[in-house]
Design goal:
Length: 344
C-alpha cells in the first residue's frame, strides 16, 4: 500500500478512551473509520453521527467479519482482551491497537502475544503519555548524559496497579533505553481494589534489576508517595531517573524538573497530560509503521508486554516471598494468588 492511501479502522468500545481514539483516527487523513461498535445503542448512534455514519453494530464479531479493517482498535474493560485480540486476528487486521493492561494474568498475556505473533499482526498499546512534551524533555535530558551515568529509574502513582503501574514501568523502561529486566522483588497489601474493574492490590511496590545494571523502583496504590503538586489522582504520577551527576523527572500533571551537572540548581518546565496533544502523534505512528515495517511504533506491543511481565513478576514475588527471574512462564493467575495470600 502506498504511503498516500487510507487505512480502514474499526473502533470497538466508545467510552471516553474509545472516543479519543476515534477522534484521532478521524482527524488523520491516513485513516478512514469504517466501523464502530458499542454495546450501548444510544452511545453507538451518537458516535456514528459524529464520525460520518460508518457501519455500526453492537456485536464486534459480526462487524469485524463484515468490514475486515486494516486497523482494529478496541477500548474496553480489561476482562475482554484475549477474546477481542482473537477476533482482530481472525478479521485479518494488520494492526491491533488496544488499551493497557494487555491482560489480567501472565497466562492470558502469553496467549495474547502468541496469537498476534503467530498471525504476524502488529500491536500498539496505549502508553501515549510519552508523547507529552514534558515526558519528552525528561527523556532528552537523560539521553544527553546531562545527569551522568543513570543508576536508578523510578515511578510512583497513587492510582492502583492495573490503571497506573503499566504506565509507570513503560516510561521507566523508556528512560532506561528499554533495557530488559533480569529479576524482580515485590510486595503488596490490601484486597479492596481486587473488586475493581481494573482489579489490583490496594498497594504494590517492586524492585527491578535491569540487564544494564540500572535498578528500578516502582510503587502504585494507596501506599505510594503522594504528589501534592498535582491536583487530580490520575495525574499524580512521578517518573524519573537518578544519575551520578543529577536527576530528571516528569509529573504527569505537573511538568518536569531536573538538576544536571551544568544546571547550577533546579531547572523545570510546564506540561500536563493532554489527550488532544498526545493522541495525534500516537495515531500518526500507526500509519508510519503500516507504511514501513522498520518504523516500529514506540508503543509497540512487544515492549508493552515486557512492562506487563515486570508487573506480573511483582505480583508473583509478593505471593512467593522471593526474587522472581525474568522471563516469566505460565503460572497460577496472579490476582487470584494474591487474593489468597494477602491477609483479610
Amino acid at each position: 500500500m502506498s504511503a498516500g492511501q487510507k487505512y480502514s479502522v474499526v473502533v470497538v468500545g466508545l467510552g471516553k478512551r474509545g472516543m479519543h481514539h476515534a477522534q484521532a483516527f478521524q482527524d488523520n487523513d491516513r485513516f478512514e473509520i469504517a466501523g464502530l461498535c458499542d454495546i450501548d445503542p444510544t452511545r453507538l448512534e451518537a458516535a456514528a453521527k459524529q464520525f460520518g455514519q460508518p457501519k455500526t453494530s453492537t456485536d464486534a464479531a459480526s462487524l469485524l467479519k463484515s468490514v475486515r479493517p486494516d486497523v482494529f482498535c478496541f477500548c474496553t474493560l480489561p476482562q475482554l482482551r484475549l477474546e477481542l485480540i482473537r477476533l482482530g486476528v481472525d478479521s485479518g487486521a494488520r494492526l491491533i491497537a488496544f488499551e493497557k493492561p494487555i491482560a489480567l494474568s501472565m497466562n492470558e498475556g502469553l496467549q495474547v502475544m502468541d496469537a498476534v505473533r503467530q498471525a504476524h499482526v502488529k500491536t500498539v498499546v496505549s502508553h501515549q503519555h510519552r508523547y507529552g512534551d514534558h515526558y519528552k524533555k525528561v527523556k532528552e535530558i537523560i539521553a544527553s548524559g546531562a545527569i551522568g551515568r543513570v543508576h536508578t529509574v523510578y515511578g510512583t502513582a497513587s492510582g492502583w496497579m492495573m490503571h497506573m503501574a503499566t504506565h509507570l514501568i513503560d516510561y521507566m523502561r523508556w528512560f532506561n533505553d528499554n533495557a530488559d529486566a533480569e529479576w524482580v522483588v515485590g510486595q503488596a497489601s490490601g484486597k479492596e481494589k481486587l473488586k475493581d474493574n481494573h482489579p489490583s492490590p490496594d498497594y504494590i511496590a517492586g524492585l527491578i534489576q535491569f540487564a544494564n545494571g540500572v535498578r528500578g523502583i516502582v510503587e502504585s496504590g494507596d501506599g505510594a508517595p503522594d504528589v501534592p503538586e498535582v491536583d487530580y489522582w490520575w495525574r499524580r504520577c512521578r517518573i524519573g531517573a537518578q544519575g551520578t551527576e543529577g536527576f530528571a523527572e516528569v509529573l504527569t500533571g505537573g511538568g518536569w524538573r531536573a538538576i544536571t551537572k551544568d544546571s547550577k540548581g533546579v531547572i523545570s518546565g510546564p506540561g500536563c497530560m493532554d489527550y488532544a496533544h498526545d493522541m495525534p502523534p500516537y495515531v500518526a505512528g500507526i500509519a508510519d509503521w503500516l507504511d514501513d515495517p522498520e518504523k516500529i511504533h514506540p508503543c509497540n506491543g512487544e515492549s508493552a508486554f515486557k512492562g506487563f511481565e515486570i508487573m506480573m513478576a511483582m505480583c508473583r514475588s509478593a505471593v512467593e516471598r522471593g526474587k522472581i527471574k525474568i522471563p516469566l512462564g505460565p503460572g497460577d493467575p496472579e490476582l487470584e494468588a494474591l487474593a489468597k495470600a494477602l491477609p483479610d
